[in-house]
Amino acid sequence: SFLETIPGIGAEKAEAIQTDAARVIELEKEEFAQIKAGEEAVAREQAKQMFDEYAHRQTLLPEEDRIVRVKGVGSETVAKLAEAGILFVEDLVDVTNLIAIAEKAGITNERLDELIHAGKIFLEKERKGEELAVSSDDAGPEEGYEPSELLNSEPEAAEEVAQEA
Q1: How many CB atoms lie within 10 A of CB 42?
Q2: Which of 2, 37, 42, 79 has its C-alpha lying 20 to 30 A from 155's C-alpha?
Q3: How far apart are CA 3 and CA 10, in angstroms?
Q4: Sequence-distant (≥ 6) Cβ neighbours of residue 69 within 8 angstroms
Q5: Can you tell me the distance from the alpha carbon of 119 to that of 68, in angstroms, rounded to the nearest whole number?
Q6: CB neighbourhood size of 92 (10 A)
Q7: What is the mean pLDDT of residues 52-59?
Q8: Is 80 helix (H, G, I), strand (E, B) or coil?
Q9: For residue 74, what is the DSSP state?
Q10: What DSSP string describes 83-134?
């Protein structure tokens, strides 16, 4: 073999190198197969979750019918929320920058905080399969509403920034 022609290697070392190389190749093939099997299992699980989510979505009302069932969301509020990029109930409950979104929507921070709470209550009721009626813009806050940390912490953060300037 080619290795035997290299000075100092010889037939015995060449065979040992070839045997070791073949062993390493087999180990790497096994490792690759394990990695691939793990990736395939993750992909299957993700696909299952997607199909489960799709099946669940099929049982829900259309998005435009869902958001108007959030207490305090009527046609005027739907339009204002849409201006701020809030099209779905999930978008509403996922708001993290309350001040910026409220400003874009043209509503008060407190009102947006109330709507976020109402959106969370809506999702809980929806998960339980409760029938929810269409709401109105003047329905008021959902039962149990208390100002959230999101609302309480942002003015303090704004004051800190103003003091640092």
Answers
A1: 10
A2: 79
A3: 8
A4: 61, 122, 132, 133, 134, 135
A5: 10
A6: 24
A7: 79
A8: helix
A9: -
A10: HTT--SHHHHHT---HHHHHHHHTS-HHHHHHHHHHHHHHHHHHHTT-----
Written as six digits, the tokens of 129 are 């399969």
pTM of the complete model beyond 0.90: no
Q: What are the CA-CA distances from residue 70 to residues 9, 31, 49, 94, 104 (Å)?
A: 79, 51, 26, 14, 20
Residue 117 · residue 141 · CB < 8 Å: yes
Helices (H), strands (E): how many in the chain? Answer: 7, 0
Q: Amino acid letter at 163?
A: Q
CB 142 within 8 A of CB 92: no
Token pair 């409950």 is at which residue? 93
Reported as a single tens digit per residue, the pLDDT across 81-104 is 999 999 999 999 999 999 999 999
- Give how far the C-alpha of residue 132 lies from the chain's centroid of Cα atoms, to the nearest Å: 25
- 70: exposed, middle or buried (C-beta count within 10 Å: 0-12, 13-18, 19+)? buried
Location of structure tokens 């399969």: 129
